[in-house]
Amino acid sequence: MTRKAAVVTAILFILAAAAIAQTLVYRVDRSVCTGCGDCAAVCPVDAVEIIDGKSHIDPEKCIGCGFCQGVCTYDAIR
Ligand code: SF4
Ligand code: SF4
Fold first, then answer.
1. Which residues of 28-40 are buried (b: 16+ CB within 10 A; e: fewer)?
2. Residue whose CA lies nearest to ligand 2 atom number 8
3. Which of 1, 31, 44, 71 is the most buried (most CB within 10 A)?
């Protein structure tokens, strides 16, 4: 593979990965959420707010890392 082809392939890979990441939308099941705030504490981009005692994820800020889902002991984030 030529250097130019490798660069083009790498760019296409990055664009595809970014597109896939944008489809990973995390949502909160408000019927399960206790409002503990653990998810908000670990979010690296401050996309989580506790509103009326329940977690809310701002889809415009969320980068799809999944940290919030990992710490939720109530399985409220999917
Ligand atoms: S960690 Fe889970 S239960 Fe706690 S506020 Fe976040 S979504 Fe709700
Ligand atoms: S997936 Fe990551 S960026 Fe999105 S709300 Fe959860 S912790 Fe924040």
1. beeeebeebebbb
2. 43
3. 71
